[in-house]
Amino acid sequence: MDASYALLIAATLNAGTVLAIASLGLLINEKAGIVNLGAEGMMLCAAIAGFATVVATGSDVMGFMAGIAAGAFMAAIFGVLVIWLNTNQYATGLALSLFGAGFSAFAGITYVQEKMPERPQFEIPFLTDIPFFGPALFRQHPLVYLTVVFAGALVWFFYRTRAGLILRSVGESPESAHALGYPVRWIRLGAVMVGGALCGLAGAYISIIYTPLWVEGMVAGKGWIALALTTFATWRPARVLLGAYLFGGVTMLQFHLQGIGVDIPSQLLSMLPYLATIVVLALISRNPRWIRINMPAAIGKPFYPGS
């Protein structure tokens, strides 16, 4: 098989990992009944935090930790506003996204021309030498493989553990969970912060590994696609993973087509990921009963413990 197809598969896994990490974080939020539209802003702030940290320390691990901390911190602010002060979840999320875009652009002005240290080449010994499959599957950053493991662990957590059952019950009927003595607000805040941390990790991955540089607005709508993916996957972690790779493949397809000389305007090719998002959501919305069956019953609804 042509080596270009192996490179396309490798690029698809790389691009899909960004969407998968962010989408799984947003899925945790929504399983607890909270909708956070601020993923784009959190990812942008995490991207500049991670990039700046790697430039200063030379450590990818420190960069990822900085991105996680930035995402969790912004999510904590969002959580306090919507869970304790009962602000509108959708308006607050949009405000967070706009704030993140503006703040990251301001904070990143001095880092536009900065370069990170030489990047290590990741590969799995012996497996990387397999024709076609080696370059396609076994030369990825470790986080690509950890994301797949995490998606499987999340399935086990949601459907095989008591903690996962409690989290889902908070998203289905917070009043019932509160009546049983569970701290609904704190559980929701924990879910929101974990989701924010994962969005932060996705943002840091973009600036450290995916495109090792900083450019204003470099997340380029991936936060919104990740948000759409949770609905596309009907709130199932395994489907989120598959959907992320599907959208990652669509994103990389534009470069592949340009590389093999297909005469299509670049503007049209750049539209492909967003066009695919609209088409998929339009197809899903044709069956609202299917969405209602799968989505958490209390998603987006405020909870008042005293009522």
From TrEMBL:
The yes or no answer to whether the keyword Ligase is present is no
One GO cellular component term, please give it: plasma membrane
Q: Does the keyword Transferase apply?
A: no
Output the InterPro entries linked to this UniProt entry: ABC_transp_permease (IPR001851)
Q: How does it sit in the membrane?
A: Multi-pass membrane protein
Entry GO MF terms: transmembrane transporter activity
One Pfam family name is BPD_transp_2
Question: Coiled-coil intervals in this record?
Answer: none
Please list every transmembrane segment annotated in the UniProt record, as residue ranges. Answer: 6-27, 34-56, 62-85, 92-112, 142-159, 186-208, 214-233, 240-258, 264-284
Q: Where in the cell is it found?
A: Cell membrane
Q: Which UniProt keywords apply?
A: Cell membrane, Membrane, Transmembrane, Transmembrane helix
Q: Where does the source fall among the domains of life? A: Bacteria
Q: Could you identify this protein by its name?
A: ABC transporter permease
